[in-house]
Amino acid sequence: MKIETALATALQKTLSELYNISIEADASLIQPTRKEFEGDLTIVVFPYVKLARKAPDMVAKEIGDKLCSTVDFISGYNVVKGYLNLSIADNFWNEQLHSHFQDAAYGQAERRQEAPVLIEYSSPNTNKPLHLGHVRNNLLGHSVSQILQACGYPVVQVNLVNDRGIHICKSMVAWLRYGNGETPESSGMKGDHLVGKYYVVFDQHYKEEQKELIDKGLSDEEATQQAPIMLEAREMLRKWEAGDEEVRKLWETMNQWVYAGFDATYERLGIHFDKTYYESNTYLLGKSLVQEGLDKSVFYRHEDGSVRVDLTDEGLDEKVLLRKDGTSVYMTQDLGTAQLRYEEFKPQKMIYVVGNEQNYHFDVLKLVLGKKLEKEFGNSIYHLSYGMVELPSGKMKSREGTVVDADDLMDNMFQEAKASTEALGKFDFQSEEAEKLYEMVGLGALKYFILKVDPTKNMLFNPAESIDFNGNTAPFIQYTHARICSLLRKAAEQGIAITEGLNDSTALEAEEKQLIKMLYRYPQVVLSAGDSFSPALIANYIYDVAKQFNHFYQETPIFKETDERKRILRLQISQWVAVTIRNGMKLLGIDVPEKM
After folding, report:
1. Are strands 349-355 and 117-120 parallel, antiparallel or unpaired?
2. Please, are residues 194 and 257 in contact by the beta-carbon 8 Å criterion?
3. Is 463 a domain residue?
4. Are 462 and 344 in the same domain?
5. Range(s) of the domain holding residue 217
6. pTM, two decimal places
7. CA–CA distance, 182 with 86 (Å, rounded to integer)
């Protein structure tokens, strides 16, 4: 039982016996004591003063006396203006240390026997490679999946590949016009990079054709609509939906190039999915749901031929569900995909990890499914909305080819890690070991820098800052873990058996107790991160642990300690720190080295 839960139960009983006050045993009433005061846990007594008919300090003193005499893990208390600060006995903290310092599954809750949580993330388009924005999406989705699993939830990780639509046709048209049969093999390019190249080529020629039309006297809007290359792309989309054999064959070929490229990027990022859906397989089901809405008169056919839903009563506007030419929009396939997932997995919640520029889209999706079509699973949709990633140079634009490619970014992080690690001058690895270390440090730096930021906030990514070995970074945490592993290896070499149990009454020094208290909080941090879908809570907690350990390491000697019991105790604390760092970083998708 958590100490806060046990204390809440004891407080419930104490208030009843002292003042005949009845309260629920609520662990949230128990808070960590503020650093400037002596104590471990604090109870605010003001809510009970009126019923007790006594001054706040007197109520606090009476509760403190009673708890000290009846609860064996409370060793003392002090009162500060109606706040009861309780000190927890060293034997409790020693017991926690001995229970967990070797627990490889520390912070992992038991698996719940219930319907799964389904998480969709990545959701790339097959007209371009993954870029920095996708990196944040993938890292956030993967980490939230790991955290929810650590909280005990069964989790299904899915990807939805947007493999059809006008944007896909743009790359296809440009390749037909200007590609001269170029392939990944002939060019030496990854398939996703090659297709992305022609998406940029399309935009370049599209702008040229628009300018020519404007110079001939057409308005900007007319030029946008009538540019020949855009008309070709629209005609290709129409043919695709009509099942044109030649268009479909080209589409399949170019998509296969992209999938191979995506798979290589996912593997390097450490990302995997339990199932991948394809928009080309779900949009028809979406169309059938649109027809269902028409049949129920909750959707209507506009005078221009498009199918729409009127959401003005819900504070939104009219949303197009099918274009006037009968082709699908994003909403069409999202309707079908949600239905398909519900039928396959019956999830308790469907989480969509998508940037905040799509907030409106998911408001509409939930309303259309849950309210208009009266699908129960529509109410289980949750949009995990996150902020955009920018660089010091500004925003990224796919059409103009100014995106930061995910593969190039990972290569750059590898080089940054190599330069920074070698600059430390403390490493002695063979070439193959060094390469693995640079990859671990570089990718760790990238992942941590992104995940330590609250998902709801926009962020500025600075590669050089992310690799700093002295800041709130993965390399600092990784180096701390390697330092602890070095300590444990040294202990083994000296024949120190740190697994030997110590007496639970061993007195703890302030630095020892502070670190144990911090480590004790880890399971609750994981649960809080799961409740809020925020890996940032874990990232910043692990940084605080690493920082506290380095302070502990500087202030509290280990091998110079002459008391054998103290030496073993400090090594056990060190191992618990390593276990917690390793488990926490794993939830962020980050590996930690044993040597550095």
Report:
1. parallel
2. yes
3. yes
4. no
5. 121-390
6. 0.91
7. 72
In a shared domain, residues 162 and 230:
yes
CA 254, CA 192: separation in Å to the nearest integer?
A: 9
Is 267 inside any structural domain?
yes
Amino acid at 334: D
Instruction: Give the CA angle between residues 13, 16, 21 to the nearest 5°.
Output: 130
A 10 A CB-CB count for 209 gives 18
CATH value at residue 34:
3.30.1360.70
| Contact call for residues 553 and 515 (beta carbons, < 8 A) | no
If asked whether residues 435 and 356 sit together in one domain, one would say no
Strands of the 74-80 sheet, one edge to the other: 30-32, 41-44, 83-88, 74-80
158 membership: H or E segment, kind and range: strand 155-161
Quick: pLDDT tens for 454-489: 999 999 888 888 888 888 999 999 999 999 999 999
Contact 387, 308 (CB under 8 A): no
User: So what's the pLDDT on residue 403?
Assistant: 67
Q: 33 lies in a domain?
A: yes
Rg, Å, the chain Cα set: 30
Alpha carbon distances (Å) from 128 to 190, 199, 514, 558, 573: 11, 7, 50, 54, 48
User: Are the CB atoms for 339 and 372 separated by under 8 Å?
Assistant: no
Paired tokens of 366: 């939930």
End-to-end alpha carbon distance in the chain: 38
**pLDDT value at residue 545:** 98
Biggest CA pair distance of the chain: 93
- 386 & 419 share domain: no
Which residues have C-beta within 8 Å of that of residue 377, sequence separation ≥ 6?
A: 338, 339, 342, 347, 350, 369
Question: pLDDT digits over 377-409, tens only?
Answer: 999 999 999 998 887 765 444 444 456 889 999
Which neighbouring-strand residues pair with 353?
384
In a domain, 99, yes or no: no
Asked if residue 439 and residue 382 are part of one domain, the reply reads no
Count of domains observed in the chain: 3
The answer to whether the beta carbons of residues 386 and 419 sit under 8 Å apart is no
